[in-house]
Amino acid sequence: MIKRALFGLLGAVALSTALGQAQASDDRKVILGTNNWAENVAVANMWKLLLDTRGYDVELKSIGKSVLFAGLATRDIDVTLELWLPTTDAPFLAPYDDDIEVHDIWYRGTGLGLVVPSYVDIDSIADLKGREDEFAYKGRPTVLGIDAGSAIAALTDDAIDRYELDMKQVNSSEPAMMSALSDAYSRQAPMLVTLWNPHWAFAQYDLKYLKDPEGVYGDNEDIYWMSRLAFGEDFPKITQVLNAWEMSDEELATLMAGIESRGDPVEGAQAWIDEHPAQIERWLTAGGL
């Protein structure tokens, strides 16, 4: 009887310990929603590495941009790191305004619009009219863009209509678009793409935005991070750290370029972390991590 009671007690203690460990693990679990934009992949992998080393269990969940907002509102996603305001992502945020918390800016002064290599002798979207045939892709005048559900794709359709251009937008993935741009650049051929900064392409190629006199693409914006409601209460240290986080155009460009050159987001992000210990320490110290 004594042995049986002792075994029962030990079993209860073991079960209690296991449940406690599971609860502790759950309390450190963070679902970080990502999309396929180069800067999003870069900073998401950087923060996963940093938070994992501080005892958190960060899972990256790659989904479409519009789904990110719904996921935050339904609490299926804890946090995502890219919200362009006041214009680009406002339509995505509006339906969930009461169910998502917008936090601090981490990147200031974005760019967004139609981009050509600098050797192209056109400087304005308005100047494309009548010269559309020069920008043929697979036999037809084309603006080569990214996925159809992105904000920049919708703005580009608006630009084609506003400037009355006789061309179509072909939507593809960002890697496919960049591959086509790289091929055209190597041949010094005209190419018209949708791009934004921050982006590693501006460090690798000599590119220029076409002026937008109609203001279709809006003014420069800032990038915020956002979370589900109550994330700040559940993860106060992470919230303080991310609110203290800021990156310059050069810093973000070197992070993205490192990932692009290595062909591996984890390896590239880790290399950047290793090269910027003082900056990393400032961010983490802000949250007591």
From TrEMBL:
<dbReference type="GO" id="GO:0043190">
    <property type="term" value="C:ATP-binding cassette (ABC) transporter complex"/>
</dbReference>
<dbReference type="GO" id="GO:0031460">
    <property type="term" value="P:glycine betaine transport"/>
</dbReference>
<feature type="signal peptide">
    <location>
        <begin position="1"/>
        <end position="24"/>
    </location>
</feature>
<keyword id="KW-0472">Membrane</keyword>
<dbReference type="InterPro" id="IPR007210">
    <property type="entry name" value="ABC_Gly_betaine_transp_sub-bd"/>
</dbReference>
<dbReference type="Pfam" id="PF04069">
    <property type="entry name" value="OpuAC"/>
</dbReference>
<dbReference type="GO" id="GO:0015871">
    <property type="term" value="P:choline transport"/>
</dbReference>
<keyword id="KW-0732">Signal</keyword>
<protein>
    <submittedName>
        <fullName>Glycine betaine ABC transporter substrate-binding protein</fullName>
    </submittedName>
</protein>
<keyword id="KW-0813">Transport</keyword>
<feature type="domain" description="ABC-type glycine betaine transport system substrate-binding">
    <location>
        <begin position="29"/>
        <end position="275"/>
    </location>
</feature>
<dbReference type="GO" id="GO:0015226">
    <property type="term" value="F:carnitine transmembrane transporter activity"/>
</dbReference>
<dbReference type="GO" id="GO:0005275">
    <property type="term" value="F:amine transmembrane transporter activity"/>
</dbReference>
<keyword id="KW-1003">Cell membrane</keyword>
